[in-house]
Amino acid sequence: MPAILTLFAALALAGPIDPQADRPPTPPADSFRPDPAWKPLGQDVWFDPRGKRLVVRARVALQDGALEHLLCRKGTKEHESILATEAPARMIHAGLLLVGATPGHPVRFEPKFEPPTGTPIAIGLEWEQDGKPRKADARDWVKDAATGEPLTRDWVFAGSELFEDPRSKAMIYAADDGDLITVANFPASILDLPFRSSANDADRGYVSHAGRVPVRGTSVTMSFTLRTPPAQGQPRLKAAPAP
Description:
single chain; globular; eleven-stranded mixed β-sheet; 2 helices
């Protein structure tokens, strides 16, 4: 029997294919409503003047896997980012300025390595799970692949890069390509980690904490505030286990 007929025969004997088998879990309901007092900066991004915070809406893109990003722009790097958003990169940058953050500089590799610098930023996460509101420190969703421990350092406002396109002469904001919040050092990152963190597959240091990240597609509200001193060792929000 030709190989193709053998394959079809095997499939027939196996029975009908379950159309639900490979579908991801259904994300929980989302009752988010922006506060009328918030100032809209663009799609899915607001400045909360009373709380002095930036609010960004995102969805879980990766529950379990190796990471280069905590947050990317939707349609760019979801295969290596826990969250994805439609919020414009430039408006996230502008919102951090409104919060009171000061950009430092992105990672530099030449003539010698210099880690990203900038104001330390605290990132809180809120979502709904099992009909209840949940909260977490964003660092608890990122796990050191070697130690199994959650991230302990804050992201800093590196500020990405602005450069002129040599052909069109238009000014290009590098983070528009998707590098919004990274756990591997990229010159285009808006928020990056203030130490050496490789993007090479063999040396990649962080993975998503699958036991804490909710199911793919879950809507998440991100809150960005200035990290008040001391920058490290802050009490963490209690992490909620994923279903």
